[in-house]
Design brief:
It is a single chain. By secondary structure, the protein is α/β, with parallel strands linked by helices. It has three domains: about 1-160, Glycogen Phosphorylase B (Rossmann fold), CATH 3.40.50; about 175-350, Glycogen Phosphorylase B (Rossmann fold); about 380-490, 3-Layer(aba) Sandwich (Rossmann fold). About 45% of the residues lie in helices and about 20% in strands. The protein has helices at about 15-25, 40-50, 60-75, 85-95, 120-130, 145-150, 175-185, 210-220, 235-245, 260-265, 280-290, 300-305, 320-330, 335-350, 355-370, 395-410, 420-430, 440-450, 465-485; strands at about 1-5, 30-35, 55, 80-85, 100-105, 135-140, 195-200, 225-230, 250-255, 270-275, 295, 315, 380-390, 415-420, 430-435, 450-455, 485-490. The strands form three sheets. A six-stranded parallel sheet has the order 3-2-1-4-5-6, with helices on both faces. A six-stranded parallel sheet has the order 9-8-7-10-11-12, with helices on both faces. Strands 15-14-13-16-17 form a five-stranded parallel sheet, sandwiched between helices. The longest helix has 19 residues, at about 355-370. It is globular.
Length: about 500
């Protein structure tokens, strides 16, 4: 398989970790070229790792597009994979000129990427939002992000959820955290101190202010707590002022940019996530790998990783009081903290490993390439009609069974459901959906469908309205007339 990866080149944090890990792993089994639209540390690090890197500094958009098209023609990729706003824009431009499947990994909520930076939000943010609509497939790194994309009108059948993965065997060993903190930041750490760490860009979306306010409250009952903040960003000065105003400056260390991050987490007892929005942050996995217990805001895929009260704690974003309670609880209970950390490491290393991520990525590529090369047919969909979207558990169970059966037969054939609540149906079943009485839309789908299924309950019910009977007979007649082929009745026995 030939894979072309596109990245902005200024990527930091989780996105950088994801891209670098993925490209290295895929490069062992496939032909991979990594394109960066910026010179800098990321591209240089990739070259040092033996990755084939092409750098096209984005000075002249027309020139860069021409160079990229030349690379596409010489490399002949089976799939193009984008990461970030700049890469998405170039991917959209390539897609307009070459018949190749273009997929993007949605690392974060693109509407919140530049929160607190209005200029970037109205330039890069809007550019990315537009470019996304012109790509073929999407990989949100958490199911919650997939739900967000569906609500924003993205086709559910073009989404491939894939969680971040990590090599959990690569742990820091024989580590003296007191010496590390002294040498790194000139900070003396007592053996009794409970070190709480967060690695994040110092921006509004990370909401580190909530963590500082929670720490102030927690210190009343757990004075051994100390907070280490690794990262840089436009909110740095504001957060330092906030720490001073809260009277907790002596218990907070602003570490700046930290590399390597594994040693940072090896020094910590707790990892905390305070973000307002995330998908599936690597920073949490990095802390877990080094034996940290975790307290995370309920964003992205955190609730799928952490079973609150069993292996960690989840709290609602901006809930200062609840975060403070969890900090106190884990700071004052060594046995619970260690037990939570152990359970969380076991779950993460089993379900969110690097091996699992790469295997899933290869499966996604294979499926996308197969779907893209699928012969184009004027009639290639399935329309399902029934009493759906009305909150009837029986009918919904039947719909679930029909969808599962159809996907078992052909997982890539489009499915459209006629529903009274199409938005909910798209979310629940990850299919296309049409409002039941949107007759122009329904008839258009009939023309495109290879199969029409009328089912749910009994077609001829013991108690029904004349209008209902007329509707079902009309759809059967229209489907038969427009399809001229397969029309099936799905009967549920009483």
């Amino acid at each position: 398989m030939r894979i072309m990866q596109l990245m902005g080149g200024g990527d930091v944090g989780g996105a950088k970790t994801h891209i670098m890990s993925l490209v290295k792993a895929l490069g062992e089994r496939h032909e991979v070229v990594l394109v960066s639209f910026r010179e800098g540390p990321f591209a240089e690090e990739a070259k040092e790792e033996g990755i084939h890197v092409e750098v096209f500094p984005k000075i002249n958009l027309v020139r860069v597009r021409r160079q990229l098209l030349e690379l596409v023609d010489s490399f002949r990729p089976d799939v193009i994979h984008c990461h970030g706003s700049r890469a998405n824009l170039m991917g959209a431009l390539i897609r307009a000129k070459r018949k190749l499947p273009v997929i993007t990994t949605v690392h974060s909520d693109y509407k919140l990427d530049y929160l607190g930076a209005p200029l970037k939000q109205h330039t890069l943010g809007n550019m990315n939002a537009i470019a996304l609509r012109f790509l073929d497939y999407y990989q949100p790194v958490a199911d919650r992000m997939a739900q967000t994309l569906i609500r924003r009108g993205f086709d559910p059948e073009k989404l491939f959820v894939m969680y971040n993965g990590m090599d959990f065997s690569d742990k820091v060993m024989d580590f003296d955290r007191a010496a590390y903190c002294r040498e790194k930041w000139g900070v003396e750490v007592a053996e009794s101190d409970i070190l709480c760490g967060i690695a994040a860009r110092l921006t509004a979306v990370k909401d580190i202010g909530t963590l500082l306010r929670a720490l102030q409250i927690a210190l009343r009952e757990a004075p051994q707590l100390r907070l280490f903040i690794a990262g840089e960003g436009e909110d740095g000065d504001m957060l330092k002022k906030l720490a001073r105003s809260l009277g907790i400056e002596s218990r907070v260390v602003f570490c700046g940019w930290v590399n390597p991050i594994d040693r940072f987490y090896a020094a910590m007892d707790l990892t905390v996530l305070s973000s307002l929005s995330e998908t599936f942050p690597y920073s949490v996995l990095e802390g877990i790998r080094e034996g940290c217990a975790a307290i995370c805001s309920d964003v992205g895929g955190m609730s799928e990783l952490i079973d609150t009260g069993e292996n960690g704690y989840i709290y609602q974003p901006r809930d200062v009081e609840q975060l403070a309670k969890y900090l106190v609880r884990l700071a004052n209970d060594d046995e619970m903290r260690h037990e939570f950390a152990s359970r969380l490491l076991e779950k993460a290393s089993s379900e969110f490993s690097m091996e699992h991520m790469c295997r899933r990525q290869e499966e996604n590529y294979a499926r996308i390439i197969e779907r893209f090369r699928r012969p184009v047919s004027a009639k290639d969909g399935i329309v399902i009609c029934g009493a759906y979207g009305k909150g009837n558990a029986g009918d919904d169970a039947i719909l679930k069974a029909i969808v599962q059966e159809m996907r078992a037969l052909d997982r890539d054939r489009p499915i459209w459901v006629m529903s009274r609540r199409p938005k909910e149906t798209r979310l629940d079943y990850r299919t296309g959906a049409i409002y039941t009485f949107n007759f122009p839309g329904v008839l258009r789908r009939f023309k495109q469908a290879a199969l029409y299924i009328n089912g749910g309950g009994n077609l001829m019910q013991d108690v029904t309205s004349t209008r209902s009977l007329q509707y079902y007979l009309y759809t059967l007649s229209a489907a038969k007339r427009l399809r001229g082929d397969d029309v099936r009745l799905w009967h549920r026995p009483n």
